[in-house]
Amino acid sequence: MKTVLAFGDSLTWGYDPETMLRHDFFDRWPNVVGRALGHKVRVISEGLNGRTTAFDDHLVPAERNGVKILPTLLASHQPLDLVVILLGTNDLKRDTGGGRVFESRQGLERLVEICQTFPYQRGYEPPKLLLVAPPPFCSTTEPDFSLLFGHAVEESTHFRSAITKVAEEYGIAMFDAGEVCETSPIDGVHLDAENTRRLGEALIEPIRTLLELDD
């Protein structure tokens, strides 16, 4: 059996912009992938609302800095065959990541380096990596989310090019979520159930290929 770690933020956790709770289990994209690949693959869903690539958030009760928590997850879930990273949205908050895709790219590079150089237990190889670019934001009239992300609607359109550069630099795979799903105008940054399922469905084949699975 192959093991996949899905490492992300609320888009991986399954935040529902309509209810502000969590999408049903099989609507969340990691579980869509896991269900499709069946007994051949175990997909570990490791998403957390507000998680950044590499930046601290001192206003929350749990660690949100991806760089700080990733080594623990690599150690506890090894051996891993693939790590899928979908992060960057929260780096565009001015109070955590600086509000630019540039900082997100730097944080993502650090996450890639951690995955590739972590001292895995002897006999285990570093996992393959798949970087997923977050979908661009859209305008919203929701007051809080407009304050948090309204300045970054245009900036978020640069996720694809920035993450493509990281993938090319490190020789790893990349997928653009914006090609298959759209953020909800309810809050401008999250995915409704249909779109998070659509993302999972689109990732099935790239993940199957990276794991070298038979159809």
Automatic annotation (TrEMBL):
<dbReference type="InterPro" id="IPR036514">
    <property type="entry name" value="SGNH_hydro_sf"/>
</dbReference>
<dbReference type="InterPro" id="IPR013830">
    <property type="entry name" value="SGNH_hydro"/>
</dbReference>
<dbReference type="InterPro" id="IPR051532">
    <property type="entry name" value="Ester_Hydrolysis_Enzymes"/>
</dbReference>
<protein>
    <submittedName>
        <fullName>Probable arylesterase protein</fullName>
    </submittedName>
</protein>
<dbReference type="Pfam" id="PF13472">
    <property type="entry name" value="Lipase_GDSL_2"/>
</dbReference>
<dbReference type="GO" id="GO:0016788">
    <property type="term" value="F:hydrolase activity, acting on ester bonds"/>
</dbReference>
<feature type="domain" description="SGNH hydrolase-type esterase">
    <location>
        <begin position="6"/>
        <end position="191"/>
    </location>
</feature>
